[in-house]
Amino acid sequence: MKEAKKILITGGAGFIGSHVVRLFVKKYPHYHIYNLDKLTYAGNLANLRDTEKEKNYTFIKGDIVDAGFTDELFSSYRFDAVIHLAAESHVDRSIVSPMEFIRTNITGTVNLLNAAKNLWNESKYEDVLFYHISTDEVYGSLGTSGLFTEESPYSPRSPYAASKASSDHLVRAYHHTYGIPAVISNCSNNYGPCQFPEKLIPLTINNIKNNKPLPVYGKGENIRDWLYVEDHASAIDLVFHKGKPGETYNIGGENEWKNIDLVKLLCSIMDKKMSRPEGSSASLITFVKDRPGHDIRYAIDASKIHKELSWSPAGGFRENIEKTIDWYLSNEQWLKDVTSGDYQKYYEQQYTHR
Ligand code: NAD
Ligand code: DAU
């Protein structure tokens, strides 16, 4: 691929996207990074305050569901590569309102694929790449043993997972049918700074801080594999630069936790950090009605990316979870803004693309 690249990162104002944008802007000054984001409730430009003034960074507000917009965008900016993270990402919301997931995750992905195909077709797909970021939830649910490999059959079980599975299939279909160089990675649960406090870890931290009940679905027996967001960003960097078009890479932390054990760990660390008597946060744990169709266990076999691209998570879980808690404790205003929705109005006034 040519040296000076124009890279479109979609969903760069969200949780994982903002870490990926920051990494690419700082590490690759000879690339220009275009961050395309609709700024839904989950998109927050405050996540990139330390990056937004860099010369090789441009923010574009827009909706990937609007095909006219995505076509025009690709013909004006002539991107060399796409790293596609924009999505509706929360399983509980997909159970309540699946249509938004169908629109953004499926139609939005096809709009980007079409715009890329039309532009890159001219140069016979030389030196270009469409990198689609996906989830381990496409593989369904595991029992007490086993791991998802890149060969595991797809068996999505929530509207969110089905919409992501559909987008993965479409990316592969465009690769096989039209020859678009495309790569996909499927990752386990991320945690770290800037995650919207509807997801288990930031929700628990925020509720402990505010002395609110800690909702644990069902008996808290479900298991997730947790990966620090900066480790996911470093894997994305490697897959983007060294991954083989047509291939899929699973990314995971080899770090499985039962939800109840994870919530109890957060409680004990928070008791210490907030100088509260031991056990006071755990007394907030409240078992609530289970998520419908709640997948029992996810776990990733990440040996392919370990072996082929020499990727491994950098730090330990305890150290990274402490860093995450510290970030939420020292970014009170960020938490207040995202939970009140005020930042949305503020940024709406500042950025309009069309
Ligand atoms: P997020 O919800 O924090 O951010 C999503 C971003 O996409 C937001 O900035 C939002 O404004 C933007 N967006 C949503 N709809 C859009 C639209 N129609 N047009 C343009 N922008 C739009 O999500 P996240 O947790 O950072 O996840 C990012 C990606 O990684 C998603 O594709 C998700 O499926 C995938 N993923 C997430 C995890 C995880 O644990 N969070 C794990 C594996 C894979
Ligand atoms: O596995 C990757 C996926 O991880 C990503 O693709 C999704 O975008 C991301 O949201 C995440 O999905 P989960 O549903 O696993 O994450 P969530 O934080 O919503 O829930 C984690 C576990 O905790 C899950 O078993 C449900 C449970 N839970 C969640 C919430 C919000 C609770 O027990 N109580 C809660 O309040």
Any low-confidence stretches, pLDDT <50, length ≥5? Answer: none
CATH class of the domain at 6-191 and 227-256 and 294-318: Alpha Beta
Per CATH, the architecture of the domain at 6-191 and 227-256 and 294-318 is 3-Layer(aba) Sandwich
Q: Give the CA-based shape.
A: globular
CATH names the topology of the domain at 6-191 and 227-256 and 294-318 as: Rossmann fold
Largest sheet: 7 strands, parallel
Q: What is the CATH superfamily of the domain at 6-191 and 227-256 and 294-318?
A: NAD(P)-binding Rossmann-like Domain
Structural class: alpha/beta
Strand order of the largest sheet: 3-2-1-4-5-6-10
Radius of gyration: 20 Å
Tally of individual helices:
12
How far apart are the termini?
A: 31 Å
- Give helix and strand order, one letter per element, not per position: EHEEHEHHEHEEHEEHEEHEHHHH
Can you give the mean pLDDT?
A: 95
Number of strands: 12
Report helical residue fraction.
40-55%
- Classify the beta-strand content into a percent band: 15-25%
Bound molecules: nicotinamide-adenine-dinucleotide, 2'deoxy-thymidine-5'-diphospho-alpha-D-glucose
Explain what the structure shows.
The chain is an alpha/beta fold. It has a domain at 6-191 and 227-256 and 294-318: Rossmann fold. 43% of the residues lie in helices and 16% in strands. The protein contains 12 helices and 12 strands. The strands form 3 sheets. A 7-stranded parallel β-sheet has the order 3-2-1-4-5-6-10, with helices on both faces. Strands 7-9-11 form a 3-stranded mixed β-sheet. Strands 8-12 form a two-stranded parallel sheet. The mean pLDDT is 95. The structure holds nicotinamide-adenine-dinucleotide and 2'deoxy-thymidine-5'-diphospho-alpha-D-glucose (DAU). The site of nicotinamide-adenine-dinucleotide has 30 residues, from helix 1, helix 4, strand 5 and strand 7.
